[in-house]
Amino acid sequence: MxxxxxxxxxxxxxxxxISQESYTKEILKKFKMDDCKPISTPVECGVKLTKHDxxxxxxxxxxxxLVGSLRYLTCTRxxxxxxxxxxxxxxxxPTTTHLKTAKRILQYLKGTVNFGLLYSSSSNYKLAGYxxxxxxxxxxxxxxxxxxxxxxxxxxxxxxxxKQPIVTLSTCEAEYVAATSCVCxxxxxxxxxxxLSTPQEGPTEIYVDNKSAIALAKxxxxxxxxxxxxxxxxxxxxxxxxxxxxxxxxxxxxxxxxIFPKPLKxxxxxxxxxxxGVTRQD
Length: 282
Fold this sequence. Notes:
Blueprint lengths: L1 E3 L2 E6 L2 E5 L1 H10 L29 H14 L7 H8 L7 H15 L4 E5 L8 E6 L11 E7 L4 E8 L7 H25 L8 E5 L2 H8 L16 H7 L3 E5 L16 H10 L2 E3 L2
Parallel strand pairs: 5-8, 8-9
Antiparallel strand pairs: 1-2, 2-3, 3-4, 4-10, 5-6, 6-7
């Protein structure tokens, strides 16, 4: 076993397992949650938080310390990325409601301390990405959240969950903006892999579960439905025309990026957690 900046690396016949088990235990102890009751998901399905919460305020320094500690854990735990990003929005004036949501993440970690990412040997070096978004999920500014994940083989190796910089007017537009962010990252990854002598043959497939967004991306005509969308988000069309990427439809139940932009029911969360390669190492 090797350690690097709190990250533990174990290698066996199954592959390489990366986790932060010891660091997770330190966080639980630091915030006096090492004896808490475990819970099955990091964020409650349907939760709605706001900056204008009228509950009692809590110490911002303590809250920032908690969120910062959780943020570093997302290096090997993409399953908590959305939850951590959600509570990160309220660090300026946190309340007991925000703190309760953050502590729920600790309760989830209590039951999944020894979880991490298993990278098994594979001959599949083809890059593939999944892109998804919610729509107007932020209660304060009605901005949507972008989530995407990339695979080479069976385990995720890069992921993102981030609030979009603009307010979108439809689900289609939110998905289109998310897909453009995913494509930009795909182009960067393709260039990086080329430098590492692993060039990608053919276009990188990006999977989206919204047919309207796919049609908008593939249509070179700047028609009335997309005039209001910032020009920078039409970069995706140029990448498709150059055959750097190829946008494909995937059913919602097979959209693994769904774990990054929104809270999910327990059964859906566990299914997608398994899909991105987060697993227990005994």
